[in-house]
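1st attempt posting a full record on here, be nice pls
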Amino acid sequence: MHVKLRLVYVVDGTVLVPAATLTAMLRALAEEVSAWQDQGADPTTVGAFREMLGRVADTIDVDCISLTSDLVAGRQQSG
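the predicted structure (as tokens):
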């Protein structure tokens, strides 16, 4: 599997990756994991791992939407 990060930022020595890039990478990894069953991995374990990766990606999406909504609401109230 090859993963390319198009945008990576360094702020105060910390590497930052856009949430959309991270969630896309998690979802791509979940799809890649599906092939593990064909290589003899336990289907229950593979399914649980895929589900966990999807939940992490969904949580990041929801948190970012919430944060963005809060920021927009704050601007509207102060503007």
